Fold:
Amino acid sequence: MTTLTALCTVLAVGALFIILAHIAWQGIGALNWQFLIDRPRPVGEGGGIGNAIVGSVLLLLISSAIGLPLGICVGVYLSEIGKGHFGGAVRFIVDTLTGIPSIVTGVFVYAIIVVPMKHFSALAGGIALALIMIPIVARTTEEMLKLVPHSLREGALALGAPQWRVTLGVIIPAAAPGIATGAMLAIARVSGETAPLLFTAFGSRFFPESLNQPIASLTVQIYNYAISPYDEWHAQAWAATLVLMTLVLGINIIVRFLTRRKF
Structure:
């Protein structure tokens, strides 16, 4: 059984390394500094993904500012307060939201935000990604808080601390590494979404000047380049994919370093 489980681990991790190696092999040739800071240009004139990198970062910031606090609050409610029928209903809704296809979320945000505003925007894209993040963060936060030993809760309550103080000062700090990991999983999930952004942020060939305008993103630009008939754009799509994977990996490493336990 030890050999079997080790073999399964090697297969799972090996698949990841094969994917990363293939992306690196295909994209490293088109990757250079000018490619990272320039904006898209016509075929034969080079160009880059600088505007898409800036746009993706802005979209992740907007979605994180909306989705992470809401998701964490919902997770805290489900873990510490929501024990009755209403809590069960909220948990069921969160589980349902987790399984909704991302394109449905994009169409929903398109109907309630883009259509009334009569134009695409970075704000609409950030809201669409936030709706995808909320259920992931909520469920992860709930499970991480449930792993905190009940003795910590009982000890804090025995010292006379109110419930809200115990939750904010004892329970959440104890589960902070797990909550941060769940938040990063949510960010990694939405950073690769394309369909919701096609209906909300849409895309742009210029650097963003306002959150109320269409904005470029790495995923949409990769999609547009990948379906194009030009070999140059195909190479740039691979290079942009390598950049996207590197950014996600870098964010995970930074958060792991910042949230590591000191004891």
